[in-house]
Specification:
The chain is mainly alpha-helical. Helices cover 85% and strands 0% of the residues.
Length: 102
């Protein structure tokens, strides 16, 4: 159930602008609603599958290989922090957000 809820929250939060951009030119209310339902279901399903695929190694190793599980958690944390720092540098300095060159 948790992957479903994570998928719902992330899917709807990150995709709302895209959904609204596509609904704006549709003048039929029924078609707009149908598009939103299909888009929402697809977003939820996609996020559910991605979340489950990422969580599977952690769930498997948590019960059988505690040392590997801890290593996976540490690697995931370090990778997340590293990627966040890379994005901050890329957007802030290379793209000019902090330097005024953007």
């Amino acid at each position: 159930m948790r992957p479903l809820l994570v998928g719902v929250v992330h899917g709807l939060a990150g995709s709302a602008a895209v959904a609204l951009l596509m609904v704006a030119p549709i003048h039929d209310a029924a078609l707009s609603l149908a598009y939103l339902l299909v888009f929402g279901f697809g977003t939820i399903a996609g996020m559910l599958l991605i979340t489950m695929a990422i969580a599977l190694p952690f769930a498997y190793t948590a019960r059988r290989l505690l040392g590997v599980n801890r290593s996976l958690a540490l690697a995931a944390g370090l990778l997340s922090v590293g990627f966040g720092l890379f994005l901050a540098y890329q957007i802030g300095f290379v793209d000019g957000l902090f330097t005024g060159r953007g």
